[in-house]
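From the shared-data thread, chain only:
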Amino acid sequence: MKRAILLGLLTAAPALAQTPAAWETPRWNPQPAEGDLVLPLPCGGRIALREVAVPAGSGPLDDKRVTLGSPELEQGPAEFQHPDFVAGGFRGNGPARRFWMGKYEVTRDQYAAVTSANCPAAGPEGRRPVADLSWFDAQGFIEKLNTFLLANARNALPKEEGAIGYLRLPTEAEWEYAARGGAAVSETEFLEPLPPMPDGDPEAYIMAGSRRTGGRAQAVGQLKPNPLGLHDMLGNVAEMVLEPYRMSRVGRPHGHAGGFVLRGGYYGSSMDEMRSSLREEMPPFDATTGRATRTPQVGFRLALSVTATTSLAQTEEVKRAFLAEANSRQQDVARSADDPQAALALLRRGVQDPAQQAAIRRVEAQLASDARARGEQQREIVRAQIETLASLAFSSREVEFRARLAEQQLNEPGPRRAIEARGPQEVGRVQAGIADLRRNGAAVMESYAATLRRIAENAPRGVVVEQVGLVRRDFQTRDLPRLGAYLDVIDRHIRDSQLGRAPAPAAMRQDLDRAAEDAARNFRPR
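Structure, as tokens:
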């Protein structure tokens, strides 16, 4: 008896030790392409994924802002356009981050290989997407597959700073970003209802319409891929994603989290209604059966991601980046207190509603236009003030010249005798005239200094330099060299005043005297 049992065990041993034959490539990857990430499954199966690059930047908190949904109001709260953010958990060699998306929808064979006690036999039905299963069924498959990979193919999974990647359902943002073509398309193409189709024939890319599908899902990978090399993102079966369904309240998510989200339409959808933004809600439980909802139109594909915190060093790096950004935001808030443009920019960054963002941009544009008008007006004022300074400088030196000439006549014997000869009161009249000239000269210098202070306090240095140059060219054109002779002194007086070292009145007069003397020496009457 014992010998018979032993012989039976020995006879059965080779069958138990056999490794299932690897699946033929068309069974799991009907359209192989360079860059496919291939992971093993039980029963000799395989599953292919495609890298999705996200050019978000190299910082630990960098992500990419994207516009998702549809701008068409008729799509209502299900699909209205809204901003969202995407960032792959894996860093590349450059500024792009990345995650992986299933190249095809999970097939019946792949699902059975992971969840069934017996390995599935090869056949055409096994290549169709698995469907008629619940969101919870998909989670059960994902749990078993990750457990298998960690036990049998740990090294095949991408890693980030030692953290091992894992498979899950994609988020809505990841799904739509990939469906639209991600970084493989232009910003304009990304916003189109459908991704670029070089052949111009949607039927070459989208498995939809009962006429073409016969009212059932077709084998994956029969049609052409989207720009990222992903097949059947639109049509075939609707695909479950990770988050619960939330409506859009004109540009932001509504607060009610409902059932599960289905993306991309299915084989019975008409071609006219296919679009990257298409989304529907599936109740998690069927009130009729009292069980989790399952329909033959719904399947799923996988995403490969990694935990948000991958190491202690990365956690510290994220914390430093967060504090730096928080401090920067606080500085932005402080600057915005006195700067309407900065305040509006800060407000716009915190608004998700596209209509509100557009309204803020219109206000920003009007403020910018007003600022340009004020800037032009300021430049015109500064130019007029500089011309006034040149005139005041010239006038003050003319008055000073006349006062000095009169004093010289009183102090020299010959001219004084001529004045006295005109009567005893003539000397007094000349002295009173000199006093008036001195008072007028002082008033002109007070006006000069006051105008100088206004320019120094209100005009940026660059505006002053620009307008001094324009006034100089204008004086040259108008042939006013004696006025132009003061511009260098005027520019220096303004600069010194802006630096907090305004010249004293006596120093101003000396500077203007030297400029007048230089002008007199260099002036040649025509």
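The first strand starts at residue 37 and ends at 40.
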